[in-house]
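Ticket opened by: R.M.
Priority: normal
Category: complex prediction / small molecule

The reporter submitted a protein together with glutathione and asked that the result be attached to this ticket for the collaborator who will pick it up next week. Submitted input follows.
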Amino acid sequence: MILIGMFDSPFVRRVAVSMNLLGVQFEHRNWSMGKDFELIRHFNPLGRVPTLVQPDGEALIESTAILDLLDECAGPERALMPRSGKDRREALRILAMATGAAEKGVTQVYETVFRPPEKRYRPWMERCHTQMHAALAEVNRLAQIRAGHWLIGDRMTQADITTTCVYTFLVDALDINRSGVSYPELAAIAERCEALPEFRAVKAEWFVPGETG
Ligand SMILES: N[C@@H](CCC(=O)N[C@@H](CS)C(=O)NCC(=O)O)C(=O)O
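Result attached by the on-call engineer:
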């Protein structure tokens, strides 16, 4: 399988980490959504990453859909999402908050990278900033309840993986802890996960996207 997209993207990285944890081999195409737009569009008309090209040539898009395929192939015992019930709903809730925070972070990055300064609209940036921090605070609150444990149950799940990828991305790209805001429980989860080889193997420096980068 071929995974398209750079590992500084939380969406690409959560797929790569999940593949590592599940022992799924993949080739990586380190293509930038900026300068490699046309290359990406060749596999995904939407021009987005992650895109996973399967052995039969079919390209799967949207990290959630890709993770769903990985879990299905792994089988119910090894799947990274809880199968059903309260644990699954709780995991989905954490994922919605964490990926929502990442989306609001990505929007803020694009606003500065792709728009000339005179076209930027400050109230929109502030709204995204508020939403991102509110979502992070909510995941941090949920993590506080589970302090010292995995977010769901007694093993690492997709909730921990995605939370870590999002937190690391937002620290790297937007320096979210500046101005005194901090998320100690998220930092603790990230520290625990980032130390694992499956995360370390797919860590990339933050790369500012753009038409030439
Ligand atoms: N909902 C998507 C979000 C993916 C996403 O936002 N990817 C960004 C990189 S972090 C991208 O490809 N942006 C280019 C664009 O949307 O034009 C997913 O989960 O896969």
